[in-house]
């Protein structure tokens, strides 16, 4: 089969198609004929040598796919063969075939193409696990009303990335007021079209804007892909009892914190990643995605935000586009 294997680290040019044997499904696993694979920042970091695959995971790139079940291992129902699915993976997605545990599968919504479906598992699991399971945001709009009758407020950094686009739609569906940082006015228009209130960080202070627009109260939840550079401003942007969830370090890995301020305002700081979690933890996350997020996707209330599709053979070109930060939403490889 064809696959993009981790052989050398560097720029997008290191991504090349290799021919290797197809994997064989083990107990409670299925073999998926991959039709499309999503590209994520973890892939770009792995390519540069900063994010190695977890132990005993595939050295093939790719953390999410959509395709059809072609074979099953012991303990997996043979009746599932031919079923279209999405899968969350620790690696292995940039290939013609990949194996996945049955507990890490999601049914492919009928209203999505394979390319659209491949853009969903990683962002849906990331957003749901952090905002809902970790920070405690409810998907019920009635439960996101504060004591003063106003909706809870969310700030999302990186509003036009794959995670940002999905997070905006999820939090709006949950009935919250949503701010999102972007780099340009063009991206601000895109975020505005989704229903969020954009903040162009090159021209405006997100801290000043959010505090001003909320009457000094601040944001109840912040989803942050920047890390160190934003840490202090993030803390001072939070409302009393607010939650900051750090899921990326694009702005550095170190920061100083005034613990007295955090204590006085009862702030919670979380730092998480998805790839290194156990299979059981990922399965729990996907159960929540299946129950609370997929119905919104199937009804059309949450779109996928697919930006551009490249063939597998153009993985290097796809990563070059991804690295340019021009994309608005997800970039996907068409594999079939």
Question: Which structural traits does this protein have?
Answer:
10 helices, seven-stranded mixed β-sheet, globular, six-stranded parallel β-sheet, alpha/beta
Structure description:
Keywords: NADP, Oxidoreductase. InterPro entries: ADH-like_C, ADH-like_N, ER, GroES-like_sf, NAD(P)-bd_dom_sf, Quinone_OxRdtase_PIG3. 29% of the residues lie in helices and 25% in strands. It has 10 helices and 15 strands. Strands 3, 4, 5, 6, 7, 14 and 15 form a 7-stranded mixed β-sheet that branches. A 6-stranded parallel β-sheet has the order 10-9-8-11-12-13, with helices on both faces. The protein has a two-stranded antiparallel ribbon with strand order 1-2. α10 links the parallel β14 and β15. The model has no long low-confidence stretch (mean pLDDT 96).
Give a quick precis of the structure.
InterPro entries: ADH-like_C, ADH-like_N, ER, GroES-like_sf, NAD(P)-bd_dom_sf, Quinone_OxRdtase_PIG3. By secondary structure, the protein is an alpha/beta fold.
Topology at a glance:
Layout: E1 2-4, E2 17-19, E3 29-39, H1 41-47, E4 64-72, E5 84-88, E6 97-101, E7 105-107, H2 114-118, H3 121-134, E8 153-156, H4 162-173, E9 177-182, H5 185-194, E10 197-200, H6 206-213, E11 219-224, H7 231-237, E12 238-246, H8 259-264, E13 268-271, H9 279-298, E14 306-311, H10 315-323, E15 330-334
